[in-house]
């Protein structure tokens, strides 16, 4: 066992002890506490918890690597995964908060007064969150496996056990405060290496201001090698793919049940808008830094690694070559490693760069602990969403309305354990790359919940027939496009499977509107309740009049 | 849950019974509140679309312009759009509070009512 292993392990264990300690201290007691943390989380902390919930293994481990590989085209992820917070905060969060629902399916079931709608929405929630959590668990498996130098599958199993325990026993309340801690760990773990690299390369401790020069230099290096410039637009995909991917990620953000659920934990509509603002600020810290991380990594690889003698490569290359995620092949047989002879997988850029840049064992251990925080915190939020869709929406609302708090809580806990085990099983042999799986989850959310919620909140004429057909058509079109693009090579305007949500959303909006208009309008009661969502809590709309409580 | 037929009526009866605490306000005043909020929202969304979708559409010509060492299209994708998003969200939160104040909305009261909406669960 080398020093690096001991330091990394110690840092991960220390942060785990912190999260579990907080979860145990806050162990949930009643149902209301379990799902929405008793609705009393202040916006600033809720913003951090949203940030931890939001920033998954894909953001922390995968995104900088993706940007490094795709150049400008990778920035669709930066804008897409942040711009969605405007859709969410302006169009949906305050209104959903006023509705007083616990979960997204419950809102849909009550808004449309339809049990069928509730069940379909609960199933969509479970599909989206489950797909997403597969990516998280396999991400945690890669980190644990790499760290302990064990098989990634064994790493995944360790991750499954840990996440199942604290999600099942802590509930959302445990997780809210745990996630505040996780946010702090992961943001520090992400910023420290970027700041160190900025100092190393530019002498400026503020990477956000200094890396513009590095980006321009990368373009020069590419020109010398006869490659297309790093920052040249639309080299890796069409402009339409860029726009479609960006839209899918934005609308998917606004339709993700586990993110929306966070907005049910605030006390008022006002708190919902402030939570959205704080959340994006905290998320932005990482998203501002990811392109800098990518640029510095690429610069170090191009100037310090490429061009060195194959026989004299530093020790870090061997460990990563052994994982199969890094390839150095001296195809020109000149004994020198050329830039085009170095093949590096997206997913190791964030993990390997601190080693490459020689930032020291503590920074490397910190990054490992941060990556685990990112994967586990998101998995926690996802599992709560699956658990509440089943225990609250299907079991309590449909199967057994007389269930006691205790029974519901137990069903919720069992659901978490079962879902974690199932997701873990799939993660042992994942159906695609982590980022790909995550992008599918976004596409499905864009094709189902985004249109359903926007029309449900803003258009009182939308009825249950329109909603149900819209949900089913959106789900069908999205899934069909993903499969046709991925396996059949079918594309429209060069839009591939990751941009599928745009077609699902168009189909779902059109179906919902056309079917609603050609069938009976919803009852006056429902239409009044939709109008009621326009106003703050103090105002109540009833029979064409507005009443105000003072 | 305001969508439950019974709870909406129950809640309304409760409001009536407390009589002196509830007053009817002009529907036009409530609508003005709603319109004012929406006007700002439309402005925010126009800015949001210009800095993200708009800039991507004209990325090629922008790549000849440099800002702080970056080609401008790259700067907007990596930092500019995100900075504008964050600013818009905080502007929305602050302006939203101002509009609430202008229409006499009392935040503490809302908090009490907001907590109340979960009591039937």
UniProtKB/TrEMBL annotation, chain A:
The keyword Membrane applies. It comes from the Bacteria. One of its GO terms (cellular component) is plasma membrane. The chain crosses the membrane at residues 6-25, 45-69, 75-96, 116-134, 154-171, 183-201, 240-264, 276-296, 359-390, 411-431, 437-459, 466-484, 490-515. The keyword Glycoprotein does not apply. Keywords: Membrane, Transmembrane, Transmembrane helix, Transport. GO terms for molecular function: transmembrane transporter activity. This is Cation/acetate symporter. It comes from Ureibacillus chungkukjangi.
Automatic annotation (TrEMBL), chain B:
It comes from the Bacteria. Residues 31-106 form the Sodium symporter small subunit domain. InterPro entries: Na_symporter_ssu. Keywords: Membrane, Transmembrane, Transmembrane helix. The keyword Nucleotide-binding does not apply. The chain crosses the membrane at residues 39-59, 71-95. The keyword Transmembrane applies. NCBIfam families: Na_symport_sm (TIGR03647). This is Putative solute:sodium symporter small subunit. It comes from Ureibacillus chungkukjangi.
